[in-house]
Amino acid sequence: MSNNFLVIMAGGAGTRFWPCSRSEFPKQFIDFFGVGRSLLQQTFDRFKSFIPVENIFIASNKQYRDLILEQLPELKPSQLLLEPARRNTAPCIAYAMNKIKSINPDANVVISPSDHLILKEDVFKQTILSGLNFSASHDSLLTMGIKPSRPETGYGYIQVEADSNEGDVYKVKTFTEKPNIELAKIFLDSGDFLWNSGMFIWSVKSIEKAFKSYEAELWAKFDVQGKYNTESEQEFIDSMYRTCKNLSIDYAIMEKASNVNVIAADFGWSDLGTWGSLYDLADNKDENQNATLKGQAIYHDAKGNVVSTKNGKVAVIQGVDDLIIVDDEKSLLICKREEEQHIRDWVSEVKDTFGENYI
Amino acid sequence: MSNNFLVIMAGGAGTRFWPCSRSEFPKQFIDFFGVGRSLLQQTFDRFKSFIPVENIFIASNKQYRDLILEQLPELKPSQLLLEPARRNTAPCIAYAMNKIKSINPDANVVISPSDHLILKEDVFKQTILSGLNFSASHDSLLTMGIKPSRPETGYGYIQVEADSNEGDVYKVKTFTEKPNIELAKIFLDSGDFLWNSGMFIWSVKSIEKAFKSYEAELWAKFDVQGKYNTESEQEFIDSMYRTCKNLSIDYAIMEKASNVNVIAADFGWSDLGTWGSLYDLADNKDENQNATLKGQAIYHDAKGNVVSTKNGKVAVIQGVDDLIIVDDEKSLLICKREEEQHIRDWVSEVKDTFGENYI
User: In this structure, what is the dihedral angle of CA atoms B37, B38, B41, B45, given to the nearest 10 degrees?
Assistant: First the structure.
């Protein structure tokens, strides 16, 4: 029996990619690049060569249950952790760790987002395996840090203690918020800062100890014998989950614990958090720097546009530059690339004006 | 029994409104303004208050048979004139006139396009009734001319003989091609020119006489006893229609006959021939002159755009000016309003690149 477990967190309902991503069908369930697999499916595929499928769990909102089982038919319903309310990552992780503890108290667990892009799959596998080895032999909370390649202002950073490393594993000095561009340049130049990928590895024993030190009450809510992997698990969760506070794992644990380490990794990572990041990543730009992410397009007198429509749909784009053009069944977005930070405001406006079912 | 008949010509497969209009679902079948009735249905509705439904015929390409019967369930299949090939208006009219002659040799017939806009329905009705009266008592080919309101370069013009009128009916001096802007201004200033609406009224007797003078061979192909309104009508048409030459009624008859008259009408007409004309007509422009023709839209920092998407779909448009934005199930067009004359080139390109089924 393998001690290696995986929890994929797939509960997000992000609006940044509206209308491509909507609350009833958010980003992780979308075949973003038109390759035939959704981001969640790609995440699952990436891990299943080295983590047994029966040790893989998906944490998400209850509303996505059928979607997950449809996209990942290899999983049994008991491998889904279904949250009846959104409470950020700390309650979700406390739930997952207690459920896994009841299966295998010696488990080492990878916590992974469901909607990121990894380009170097081999390096990724080696990095995760090395992290699992480390956490099996150290009482440590390990995060995956990404070696920065540009002064990105859209990510949080992790500062390492210089020269503290065993191989690629460093001690963490601080977690930082998203910096402004001047600070991001300083971070990049210093060589001591990594991007915070939101991916973690730890043993159940280590994270339990950390929770008991910093969020004992929250942990205790989930540390109940005889509930997990039984028919009453969902009822138990449904009855208590809403009483949990809304809390991120970073704020609850990672920024407080002293035994936090980070692997400095380089596996071609993007959190796919902005159209800008998708545009930068697109490797099919034409000679005028137009990127067709999904669907097909003909461009005339147009440059620097990023276009995503439906598979099989054709766009004819003339006379416009540097636009985001996103077309979905129920909505169409056309805006300047440099204005994408306002998308969430427009989504609110659409919701207020035309109703929930566009969001 | 009424002698008044109507032939609605609904065979066009225009690409000017691609992707809103496609060959399998062209403009006349579309609910262009989102009012719940297609342009063909609106045309039918406009006439049926004063022409008996059993005297209304629709001439179109065979491929649209089911679409027409679906949109106009009041009609029997025998009221459809189904062309197995596109041969322009002269063969179509020769067919329709012979079919109607076999029903009522004293018929007076209105020939109407299926895809025009009429804003003043009451004036329209009075004009057509007055035209039917005129043609019942005169051996004349009567066309509907529209009093021009601007130096339009997109229409053909009809020059009247000044002071030749009985009421609103003038003698026609010449038909002209679409003028350039300088000539269009002269036409407008002279007061002797009307827009050619492509709408005609004549008795079967008068048009038969004209055909026999100018296109006797074409008329003879259709002037066959015992074929019309029988089970063998379609077979007869199928067997001979392709042998007809491709010819417009203007070129075949109207520009040659000497007994051509025109009614100077003013019933709020547009041929809906360009996005520009639709944009000009739109009465729901916002304070930044954005016109949402179909669907719903939110605009930010955007002006002078014309947007047509699907009913129920929402567009968010930011940072763009003076664009045509047309969204259809399979295609999306975004281009400068001033470049719409190139749409047919792009449609050809889409056809060549992605195939027939986008057109």
Answer: 50
Which tens digits make up the pLDDT trace of B58-114? Answer: 999 999 999 999 999 999 999 999 999 999 999 999 999 999 999 999 999 999 999
* Amino acid B98: pLDDT: 98
In sequence order, which residues have a C-beta less than 8 Å from that of residue B62 and are 6 or more positions away? B82, B83, B84
Q: For B180-193, what is the mean pLDDT? A: 94
B340 in A contact zone (CB under 8 Å): no
- As a whole number of angstroms, the distance between CA B112 and CA B202 comes to 12
CB count in 10 Å sphere of residue B178: 13
**Residues B162, B229: contact at Cβ < 8 Å?**
no
The rounded Cα B45 to chain-centroid distance in angstroms is 15
* A313 CB within 8 Å of a chain B CB: yes
**Contacts A318 to B, Cβ<8 Å:** 334-336, 339, 342, 346
Q: Is B244 helix (H, G, I), strand (E, B) or coil?
A: coil
User: What are phi and psi for residue A83, nearest 5 degrees?
Assistant: -90, 130
Q: Which chain A residues are closer than 8 Å to B300 by Cβ?
A: 335, 342, 346
Contact B70, B180 (CB under 8 A): no
Length of chain A, in residues: 359
Most confident of the following: A9-13, A167-171, B100-104, B347-351: B100-104
In the prediction, which pLDDT does B33 show? 72
CB–CB of A334 and B327 under 8 A? no
Q: How far apart are CA A279 and CA A301, in angstroms?
A: 19
Give the tokens for residue A42.
């790609």
